[in-house]
Amino acid sequence: MTGIDRRNFLKVSATAAIATGMAGSAHAEVRTMTEFPAAHAINMPAYVDHSHLVVRDLAMVSAWYQAILGLKPIEKSDSGEVLGVAGRPLLTLTTAGNAAEAPHNAPGLFHTAFLIPDRAELGRWLAHVAHNNVPLQGASDHLVSEAIYLADPEGNGIEVYRDRPREDWNYLQDGMVKMATLPLDLQKLYDEADKGTWGGMPDGSAIGHIHLQVSNIPEANAFFRDVLGLDLMATYPGASFFASGKYHHHVAANIWNSRGAPKRQANMTGLADYTVHFNDPARLAGAVSKLEALEIPTTRTGDVVSLVDPWGIGLKLAV
């Protein structure tokens, strides 16, 4: 491939990539412990560490995530698979015979955002998808990060991004972080990239954040900030961004497609649930206490508290 631009990415199909990319192993990976930098998204007091999607074609979608994102199988059953990096579970895929395709405006997933270690690795992944003719949906410089957007074969949104060093972020007087949506020069990123053999998503990768479609922004502010205890870190027209530890965002919520939409139904495809992990058990206890005060039903299994949020999206809170 001698040159790439966004037009090329948008007009090609990922079908060949699924056949030619890395299929991955069906055997479980041995879990290893990854050391993340102190300022990393998952070293904050609360962070997102897992996403669970319901899909129609489990085998095809799983093969795509292995070939295109470079995730590896960790667990496998007839009805589901767990995929991750270096033995760290990041994504669960399940299927069900009664799953109905979620409408475009239904509350649920806008994208799962996979955070990779640095710009060099982002460029290596870009070269990989370019050589496999994978269509992209966009690319942005957010000041705090550089992000590339695409969707899996069933339309579930994905962001692959790298963070700029925390010392390069700018915070406003009100404590929010300065973010923007500027063009990202994909050609420059590709030209700078190592074009050697790509071995999958690198160790040190994780889910950096999850971006949701919801029905109402004031309700989202009340839930994520006032109930779960996350800080409001940025706002855009129709969207709010929440985090802990002054990260730019662990959870985002928008109404761009879903303003006023009814609750998500339990049997829909797409995002079944996601997990917010609390590094401090007291923060989890505080969130659970507020859920109980609002009479939002929860169930507890060990250290995991499960619930359904105000828009019908499953949520697990864990320590």
Observed structural traits:
319 residues, alpha+beta, 2,3-Dihydroxybiphenyl 1,2-Dioxygenase, domain 1, nine-stranded mixed sheet, eight-stranded mixed sheet, 17 strands, globular, disordered N terminus
Folded structure, characterized:
The strands form two sheets. A nine-stranded mixed beta sheet has the order 9-6-7-8-5-10-13-12-11. The chain has an eight-stranded mixed beta sheet with strand order 2-3-4-1-14-17-16-15, with helices on one face. 21% of the residues lie in helices and 32% in strands. β11 (231-236) and β12 (239-243) form a beta hairpin. It has a single domain (6-318), classed as Roll (2,3-Dihydroxybiphenyl 1,2-Dioxygenase, domain 1), CATH 3.10.180. By secondary structure, it is α+β, with helices and mostly antiparallel strands. It is built from seven helices and 17 strands. The model is unreliable at 1-32 (pLDDT under 50). α4 packs across α5 (186-192).
Q: What structural class should be given to the helix and strand makeup?
A: alpha+beta
Q: Order of helices and strands, N to C?
A: HHEHEEEEHEEEEHEHEEEEHEEE
Roughly how much helix do the residues carry, as a percent range? 10-25%
Biggest sheet: strand arrangement: 9-6-7-8-5-10-13-12-11
Poorly predicted spans = 1-32
Could you tell me the CATH topology label: 2,3-Dihydroxybiphenyl 1,2-Dioxygenase, domain 1
> Average pLDDT value?
90
Strand fraction: 25-35%
